[in-house]
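Entry type: protein chain
Record version: 2
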Amino acid sequence: MTFMKQSVIIQKPLEEVFAAAIDFSNSPEVMDAVVDVELLSEGPVREGYRFKETRLIRGRKIPAVIEVTDFVRNESYSVRSVQNGLDLRYHYVFTEREAGSTEVTFRGEMKTEGIRNTMMKPLIQRIIKKEDEDHLPRLKKFIENRP
């Protein structure tokens, strides 16, 4: 179930935007709550590629292993994290626009397991939205301000 959608136009070419977006070591610059990223897979990003992301949430460091579930170079990718009965999936689509700009569209989905998580789902979604709602504008600023 989609609970978050966003889109942004970045004034850089598609290949440059896509490369920066899949360089998950950039996550602390792009996502406010992310404090550390450890790459768990070697080689280029692809389906099955994994990394560990650590977020600072309400004063606590929370690690999560994230896996790339779909990947089409310079077009789209999806990532998934499953932890404590929460299945969180983020989908990104990249579209070339006029004058060398790129539109990035994002959609976040969450599924829950267990009665507690199901009942807490609206609260959990609000917390996640608060953490991640500005990541596309931050990605835009990060990419456009690079030399």
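Comment: The CA atoms of residues 22 and 129 lie 21 Å apart.
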